[in-house]
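[Primary structure, fold]
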Amino acid sequence: MSIRAVKSIRKAIHTMEGAGVELYRAFGFKDPSELDPFLLFDDFRNEDPKLFEKGFPWHPHRGIETITYVLEGKVDHADSLGNTGSLGAGDVQWMTSGSGILHQEMPKGNSKGQMHGFQLWANLPSELKMTDPRYQDVNSSEIPEIFEDDGTRVKVIVGSFWGQSGPVDGIAADPQYLDIYVPPGVKKTFPVDTYRKTFAYIFNGEGAFDSASIPTGILLEKEVMGEELNIRDMSGNRTLVTFDTGDYVTVQAGEQGIRFLLISGKPIQEPVAWHGPIVMNTREELIKAFDELKNGSFIKPAH
């Protein structure tokens, strides 16, 4: 059994997108090979509607797939193909933009004004860049959940895991997307495909990955009583963990337990030409896409 060593640990970075949505970006717009086939991961979480209610008005996508997972509140969406819908708590949407689509995503808070969700971008290989756009909307009731005797819970959103298969299929990256909770003090090992790029994103609780027996947290520089100190932050919240190759990922939960997403995918290993919401293989393809946006030929007829 080969346990994956931790390659990097870093905090998601506060940023703003859309018409003024405050969110935290775990990765994106830097090195697309780092977590190939995944390009970007955003955590949009807030309790103040003013910080998210303006949403993500009409914008284009081409050459990628977007995966939206809602935990609290809802996201209303509409697109240039005439599709409309609403994602509620626990729901998932996988959108293949393919040859091009215009859509909008408008988040709304729950009864307490809370909104929480994630969006992941996955690249499409060159032969599928210009495929027809499509959606997969999945209700929370369709997502299988595994309960272990030690209190561990795993929601299988995409892929197969411990005898269960997620409801989303036909994705180019052939990913595995799991929502995992490990209770306080429990050490747990999860199988992953040996050579797939894999990351964990902690969004609640604390813990240590790799073969560590005691959660050590993340070394951060903080100001305490006016003095800059290097201390171990045990919050775990909004933390990205990347891994080297191996067959398993091990986590030791801290005193609060730990909840995280464990996501892996098959690398595409192709050139990436990327600007904003459009991802192609060459600069020429990218220029053509933006020219088509200007001249009105961006949306292609279905094959």
